[in-house]
Write a structure and sequence with these properties.
The complex is a heterodimer. Chain A is mostly helical. Chain A is about 75% helix and about 0% strand. By secondary structure, chain B is mostly helical. The chains are: A mainly alpha, B mainly alpha. The interface between A and B is large, with 49 and 63 residues.
Chain lengths: ~70, ~170
């Protein structure tokens, strides 16, 4: 569960980088790209939390170490 | 001078809150630190002359995504302590090696010293929203429409995943 909050921090770091370059290069495209990253982050949060809910219904856990259905 | 001071204060806050987000034991605490982190990043966007993104950051991240997280935290029972186990398949050595590689790259950057990039002719206007809107609707119309389609697909997917039976 906590793991999914980490992605938001990662995407924020990328966004800061893009906005900083946008200012340095005086080009607005960096900010446009940052807007798209925000869109993708929102979509990812919705689907990711949906997956967590579905997984919790089946396995009664949200611990990532216990998610081993695909392991062989 | 004031800009540099603002940057260093905000950077310290962002790094501190980020570290708290990933080390917090309780998920609720983690999410609350995430809100503080997002607000600090929004303030940093203001200092970077991107007011539109600062507003988007507060509305979408601090307003929307965090509420979503809190809903899921309330729906999911996190009281049960996780079973303690160490996974032998965790590649600890590989992680250390990759961290060392990143550290070496950083060291190389600091050793060479950064070159201050030449100032570029300013096309970043004070009308930030207008400029972004023009870029989005003129040059990036197809990516913009694809992004809206992505949001639609994500919405349908989240509903299908979260609904017990359709």
């Amino acid at each position: 569960m906590i793991t999914t909050t980490h992605y938001m921090v990662l995407l924020n770091a990328v966004n800061i980088n893009l906005v900083a370059f946008s200012l340095q290069l005086q080009n607005v495209i960096g900010q446009v790209f940052a807007v798209f990253i925000v869109v993708v982050a929102a979509a990812e949060a919705a689907v990711g939390l949906g997956i967590i809910l579905a997984f919790y219904r089946n396995k009664e856990t949200v611990n990532i170490d216990e998610m081993n259905l695909l392991r062989w | 001078m004031a800009e540099a001071a603002a940057f260093y204060i905000l950077a310290t806050l962002i790094l501190g809150f980020g570290a708290l987000v990933i080390t917090a034991k309780s998920t609720v605490h983690s999410v609350l630190f995430l809100v503080a982190d997002f607000l600090c990043v929004a303030a940093l966007y203001v200092t970077l002359q991107a007011p539109f993104l600062a507003v988007i950051q507060v509305m979408v991240y601090a307003g929307g995504i965090v509420v979503l997280y809190l809903f899921v935290v309330m729906l999911v029972n996190l009281k049960r302590p996780p079973e303690a186990h160490s996974d032998p398949r965790r590649l600890g050595r590989l992680g250390v090696a990759m961290a060392a590689a990143v550290l070496a790259q950083l060291g190389a950057i600091f050793a060479v010293g950064w070159v201050k990039p030449a100032a570029v002719e300013g096309t970043l206007s004070p009308q930030n929203v207008e400029q972004i809107g023009r870029a989005l609707y003129a040059d990036y119309l197809i990516p913009f429409e694809l992004a809206s389609f992505l949001l639609l697909v994500a919405m349908i997917g989240a509903i299908i995943l979260a609904k017990r039976e359709l």
